[in-house]
Amino acid sequence: MNLKRDRALFLDRDGVINIDKEYLYKKEDFEFIDGIFELIKIYQDSGYKIIVVTNQSGIGRGYYTQDDYMRLTEYMIDEFKKRDIRIDGVYHCPHTPEDRCSCRKPRSGMFMAAKRDFKLDMKNSVMIGDKDSDMKAAKNAKVGERIFLSSDQSRSLDASKRVKDLFELIYDLKENSHEHR
């Protein structure tokens, strides 16, 4: 019996994969953040599952529909496919904060669903997020490395590392891979 568990790279969507535009649901408004394709490719080539975990309260607030969200998600996945990147899973929370659901970050429901679905090794997985709620959710799910993306001086007590942009992280990953050769 094979008990090997996969590692995952968890990514928040708005602010990490794409430029955060409030209640984004149209593909013509979707702009990928510089460096995201190269970053994900590095993790994918290192054997990580690629999993998106995203709060989408615009659905619960009635700003856009579940179908609108799904169309945009399919567009995003297709853009990654064009670059030979496979998104293994996308988990979203359609609820508002007032719903007090278990899936909305900072709660860890989306992470736990992915852990169950993919039999993930959370301790050796990584989360990249741009909000404190991303870091809290990852910490609650026992994700081992929590990278806080922040171009200003803000910090998250639940992050294990802070980077100013994706290129800083790409540089660090490439430097560390050279050290291990």
Describe the model:
With 181 residues, the protein is α/β, with parallel strands linked by helices. It has one domain (8-119, 133-179): HAD superfamily/HAD-like (Rossmann fold). The protein has helices at residues 36-45, 57-60, 66-81, 109-118, 132-140, 166-179, and strands at 8-11, 49-55, 89-93, 126-129, 145-149, 161-163. Helix 1 (36-45) runs parallel beside helix 6 (166-179). The two termini are 31 Å apart.
CATH third-tier fold name: Rossmann fold
Q: Roughly what fraction of the amino acids lie in strands?
A: 15-25%
The CATH class assignment is Alpha Beta
Q: What kind of assembly state do the chains in view correspond to?
A: single chain
Low-confidence stretches: none
Task: Write a concise synopsis of the structure shown.
The chain is α/β, with parallel strands linked by helices and 181 residues long. It has one domain (8-119, 133-179): HAD superfamily/HAD-like (Rossmann fold, 3-Layer(aba) Sandwich), CATH 3.40.50. It is 35% helix and 15% strand.
SSE arrangement:
Layout: E1 8-11, H1 36-45, E2 49-55, H2 57-60, H3 66-81, E3 89-93, H4 109-118, E4 126-129, H5 132-140, E5 145-149, E6 161-163, H6 166-179
Parallel strand pairs: 1-2, 1-4, 2-3, 4-5, 5-6
Q: Could you name the key traits of this structure?
A:
single chain, 181 residues, alpha/beta, Rossmann fold, 6-stranded parallel β-sheet, 6 helices, 6 strands, 15% strand, globular
